[in-house]
Write a structure and sequence with these properties.
YjcG, 2H_phosphoesterase_YjcG-like, about 30% strand, 4-stranded antiparallel beta sheet, about 170 residues, ligase activity
Length: about 170
């Protein structure tokens, strides 16, 4: 089965992202707005049981932190993806690194760029138009992150939560 690890921001941030995703992101129906901590990877039940123990430990050692979003950016020329740029944060980077070492599969394909996708798979002209307009918008979003989720992919391609891990919580 395919799994992934992500942070779901607050409803306010999700509503802001979804106001664009409805129109510009074909994955809108497959997963809510999120910050990816670990790209999709394959694992069996035994491996997931081991990883859940590690994820509980990581969550317990992490304190809630605040992220800031001040602008949009894109992955052009690699892809015509537009995203809300999450400003660099040490705790976010540490979480990402912890989920790519030890028992976790090291499936890094790209450098870690914390973001929330708001548009993807856009045609060149549409990308230029949408990105040009979005660049002029001023975003001043702060959000407290206090958990992450282990997700699994359903047969229809959508993602659902397997388990949530709250920061600083003692797991038995």
């Amino acid at each position: 089965m395919k799994y992934g690890i992500a942070i779901f921001p607050s409803k306010q941030v999700q509503d802001e992202a979804n106001s664009y995703r409805k129109r510009y992101d074909p994955h809108y129906d497959l997963i809510p707005p999120h910050i990816t901590l670990k790209e999709a990877f394959d694992a069996d039940d035994e491996t997931i049981d081991e990883l859940v123990v590690e994820l509980k430990k990581i969550a317990n050692e992490t304190k809630p932190f605040e992220v800031e979003i001040n602008k949009v950016s894109s992955f052009v020329p690699v892809t015509n993806t537009i995203y809300l740029k999450v400003e660099p944060h040490d705790t976010l980077n540490e979480l990402y690194e912890k989920m790519h070492t030890g028992k976790f599969p090291d499936n890094k394909r790209f450098a870690f760029v914390p973001h929330i996708t708001i548009g993807q798979k856009l045609l060149d002209d549409e990308y230029s138009d949408v990105f040009g307009r979005m660049k002029m918008r001023n975003f001043q979003i702060k959000d407290t992150v206090d958990r992450f989720q282990l997700l699994y992919q359903l047969e229809n391609g959508s993602w659902t939560v397997h388990e949530s891990f709250v920061f600083g919580k003692e797991y038995l």
